[in-house]
Amino acid sequence: MTKSPDRTPLTRDFFARDVLEVAPDLLGRTLVRREPAGTIELRLTEVEAYAGEIDPGSHAFRGRTARNGVMFGPPGHTYVYFTYGMWHCLNLVCGPDGHASGVLLRAGEINVGAHLARDRRISARNDKELAKGPARLATALDVDRDLNGSDLFGGPTPALSILHGTPPPRDLVRSGPRTGVGGDGAHQPWRFWIEGDPTVSPYRAHAPRRRPSRKAT
């Protein structure tokens, strides 16, 4: 008999830990998205850790800006950014207040409200692809910059919250380099995923953008 996911909400203290503790511990947790159209619930299967000022791969590596300010705390809030002029990505702020760090939510399995996600992810070939990748996850959950700074613990029905869910056995948790991160941040094994889960996105190494060559005249 399969045990139902634990619906006990996580606490703010869960997020007040080091990002490298929080990130793998988010696997198997239930992300809840509440909106007027209905509720979506997603089991997290892939995440990445970003360690702020000590991490060359982090948006906060060079200090606080208007864009990344929410990453500096307090923990338990969302950091949403816009990338490539097309997509949003959803992160959860963690660590002590005043020290920037966060976990990028890369992929998950939608168990409740899949019909809502299908309306937004019409290119998905099946339900396993609805949230297979960070941009797809944010699109499926209708997450944009309006949710930047949202408090996971902001009242009885916050727009986003996290339940205990069903963490996987430790021997199924894998780690490796983060997807698409280059430079000095390329090799930290700070991407975590559930081995064998079909919703986990494929790894892609960083590919530097090439400037068009100038032809001699």
TrEMBL record:
It is an enzyme of class 3 (hydrolase). GO terms for biological process: base-excision repair. SUPFAM superfamilies: FMT C-terminal domain-like (SSF50486). Transmembrane segments: none annotated. Residues 160-217 are annotated as: Disordered. One of its GO terms (molecular function) is alkylbase DNA N-glycosylase activity. Keywords: DNA damage, DNA repair, Glycosidase, Hydrolase. Gene3D superfamilies: Methylpurine-DNA glycosylase (MPG) (3.10.300.10). Residues 206-217 have a biased composition (Basic residues). Its EC number is 3.2.2.-. Belongs to the DNA glycosylase MPG family. This is Putative 3-methyladenine DNA glycosylase.
